[in-house]
Amino acid sequence: MAAAPALALAGVGVDRADVPVVRDVTLDVAPGAVTVVLGANGAGKTTLMDGIAGLARPTTGSIRLDGAPIERLPPFKRARAGLGYVEQARTAFRTLTVEQNLLVARSGSGDLGTVYRLFPELERRRHLHAGHLSGGEQQMAVLGRALVSDPKVVLIDEMSLGLAPKVVHRLMGTVAELAAMGIAVLLIEQFANLALEIGSRAYVLRKGRVVHSGPCAELRGAEDRLHELYFGGRLADAAARLAREAPGREASRGASAEPPEAGSRTP
């Protein structure tokens, strides 16, 4: 019998400035696994995460954390209930030391030792202000801050943004370790194939709605299928359309060019 989901959404809708962005989203996040949410820019992924975390108020549907409804709770109570959130921008407290960043978030059985085991460079820099860390180290501190809050579920939104590929691979390995520790992870990631490699189940959003759900293995390396899910058309069809339109654009550009004046020299 499958374990009950650590996080369950049913028919969730979220607005931004009274404009519907996320519509009727239903998904489950299993304990001890990475669940991946994919989609093009503007698909509603971050708005969905903000709705789960309480930074944007859901307008419809239910959100259950470990079986208990949380959709009406303020963000701090969701965090106390076991929901960690690693937001899209690196949100380390720059004027606090690394260790202070971790201590302000520690809750329950949250352990700094676990963070330092995952990120030994943070232990070496624990007395350094977070503002002096590299971008990758700041992201490690933010992940560590979520971990010491003793979460049941961690939401991670585009942690790779602006980071070197080597660092991104390192962080992906850490996300997989979080799942191995029994934590449920809901991951939004721009590098789809990296996320699909560590994930077990994937959801794809388009225009705020779920257009696909299934095992990650179904989408690994399937570029054409991902393009179809993201944009509603096949990658090969899009390439063929661009190829057909290119000659017309070149002709139009040539026709609009002014002829050189008499006696002028061309470079």
From TrEMBL:
It comes from the Bacteria. InterPro entries: AAA+_ATPase (IPR003593), ABC_transporter-like_ATP-bd (IPR003439), ABC_transporter-like_CS (IPR017871), BCAA_Transport_ATP-bd_LivF (IPR052156), P-loop_NTPase (IPR027417). The keyword ATP-binding applies. PROSITE patterns: ABC_TRANSPORTER_1, ABC_TRANSPORTER_2. GO terms for molecular function: ATP binding. Keywords: Amino-acid transport, ATP-binding, Nucleotide-binding, Transport. This is ABC transporter ATP-binding protein. PANTHER family: HIGH-AFFINITY BRANCHED-CHAIN AMINO ACID TRANSPORT ATP-BINDING PROTEIN LIVF. It holds the Pfam family ABC_tran. Residues 7-232 form the ABC transporter domain. The keyword Glycosyltransferase does not apply. It comes from Actinomadura yumaensis. Residues 242-252 have a biased composition (Basic and acidic residues). Belongs to the ABC transporter superfamily. Residues 242-267 are annotated as: Disordered.
